[in-house]
Amino acid sequence: MNRRSFLTAAAAGLVTQAAGPLTSPARASASRALKGDPFTLGVASGDPSTGGFVLWTRLATDPLGGDGRGGMPARDVDVDWQIATDERFRSVVRTGTATARAGAAHSVHVEVDGLEAGREYFYRFRSQGRLSPAGRTRTTPAVERPLRFAVAACAHYEHGYYTAYRRLAEDEPELVVFLGDYMYEYGPSGYTALAGRVRTHTPGKCRTLADYRLRHAQYKSDPDLQHAHATAPWLVAFDDHEIENNWAGLVSSTGAPGFARRRADAFRAYYENMPLRRASLQGAVLRVNRRVSWGPLARFHLLDTRQFRDDQACLDGVRAGCDDRLSAKRTLLGSGQWSWLESGLRGSDARWNLLGQQIMMTQRDYKVGPGREVNLDSWDGYAPERTRLLGSLAATSNPVVLTGDAHMHHLADLKTDFDDPDAPVIAKELIASSIASDGDGYRDRTWIAEAVAENPHISFIDQRRGYLMARLDRDELSVDYRTLDYISRRGARAKTAHRVTIPSSAQARA
Length: 510
Fold this sequence. Notes:
By secondary structure, the protein is of the alpha+beta class. It has ten helices and 25 strands. The protein has a seven-stranded mixed β-sheet.
């Protein structure tokens, strides 16, 4: 069975049916047995290291049960886990038992270490006599080794099917970097796409812990999303919609009361549904800024562009003027995260340094003709800190910025002075379109030509849905901008709309 066959079989549940039993299956008496399959939300892995990774699942016999508990009883449940070097689980290298606690929505986070560096593994869970689908993951290499990774963001459930997730899985990345808006908080039709509503959100806008748990379960129930999670380990970070549109720090964009409690509940639900390490949940703070290395080849610096920022200037939105956005006192990253990032960039000995973050870093003028209008929720609303960050990147080995949020593919040159065509390019910014948000895409060539003319440092835009597929080695980063023509119905194929190759600065000098 090759990799593609494994993924197809795992998605259909065939791999686990053919495999032998776990060595110590979790069982229950008939009176306490669960009424149904507890693995309806699939499996996932994340945050790989040279010796391990995080394994995740969440038990739910009725994912859309209205109380957010997934149909599970108010008691803890034991879950066995198993890791093998082969997809048939004939060569098992690690087993254990975790407790899916009722107070944590019966989620399981297993932090594995002590495995062999730079190799592929397969994992699965068992509970109450039921076997989960199998997932594929990997440890990071200790030596320099090429990497295939995907970049994705923005997956509004109502706006379309998750065909892009399935195509991403079929491209067989070794790592998936997801940069925010994994789920959306709006109630049904609270944010509509041009083509209308393809699917329907769970009732109401997310405000409580139960609401967020239920919404995550709805998203996780999608088979294409489950397929993508079972393909490779993910690095995840939230943006705004996992909590509320355009929130900033402890400030609600809608002025809703009790936002601190709501944010803490949303963070808790996010952790419960993601393959994150336990250390990321620190009381009312959810730390997603972290570093993951791929041997000496690459270091991923994941940022949090929401939790520590100042409120947006000038009442937010796309606006002209707004001198407040030019204040050097304003911060997007916060002082603690800034120090962490500066230290990590200075101390990095990786050949490539990849910043994974949520909002457009390049300057983007939305007004055609004289004058300028910018999005104050993006880095344009925090321009002096952006200039400072780009100065730090200029002293870093092969910096590349990976971005989500925009719902359109972009390729941009990052400069400390965007208005000077001769200013040196410090880094490329690769902006991924959305998996589903804004529904069926299109390619308005007139609009694109006008946008590029206003922003000559942006060389490519595509309004269709999709993701990035990248191949990285010591000499170059090659990136395919993958697009789908529609998502309002199933079956669209993915194609490469644009390809960019970024040479290593060391290679370029040679």
